[in-house]
Amino acid sequence: MSESVSAARVEPKPPLASLLHNGVLRLVMQRPERMNSLSEEMMAALAAAFAEAAEDPGVRVILLAGEGRAFCAGHDLKEMTAARAHPDRGRGYYEDMMRRCAALMLQIVHHPKPVIAVVTGVATAAGCQLVASCDLAIATDTATFCTPGVNIGLFCSTPMVALSRTVARKQAMEMLLTGESIDAATAKDFGLINRIVPADYLEQVVQKYAETIASKSPLTLKIGKESFYRQLEMPLAEAYAYASRVMVDNMLARDAEEGINAFLQKRKPEWTGR
Questions:
Q1: Which domain of life is it from (predicted)?
Q2: pTM assigned to the model
Q3: What is the pLDDT of residue 1?
Q4: Which helix (H) or strand (E) holds 79?
């Protein structure tokens, strides 16, 4: 009797991996063969993960990284090109994708937990936008950044929004108009990233960096992040009035009372998130 052997079915990896440790949630985009591009699937996975993390009290800080030689190469151009076959030449699809991408970037900015981009390899177009949208960014010394849309006849208009709110105006225009890559040192000079770390020490430095932030009061981090972005859009006098109200409310919070008492008593505070 002959025995037929069928090959075992291999389930594809999910687009996003997650691991929570000591209050630090690590999200890793794991489509290296597509340079972790922001495909429909990837954006949906990221949006769902950020939404879940917002409601999880165990999550204090979020790290966002990419597997392989790219952090994120922007939109999936194969998906975008395929949409041209639609009767409207893709207009409806493109409008939906731009809405979804903008919603994802706003979700990061408005997220109650700090989000740190961990960049190894390249971050291009919407991938660079993703870095600029995160609260902080740590990169290896070999990471590169660019908004290369102009090179293919497609100005990086949506990445421009995050980029122009993160780096100085002339630096943003330089990246957008030339489409050329900048190295990690230049990205740090521009203000796009916070720190540059040798690849061999990246995990150690990133984890310590994240755990330092995660050790703070979760309520204080939430208040601080929200007020930071809100006051940026206000005139100076309005910003001071708003920040003063925030400061008073924060002062009356239990965590502020506990933190001040702990400081005066030379002990470690015990946060309750209230």
A1: Bacteria
A2: 0.92
A3: 41
A4: helix 77-82
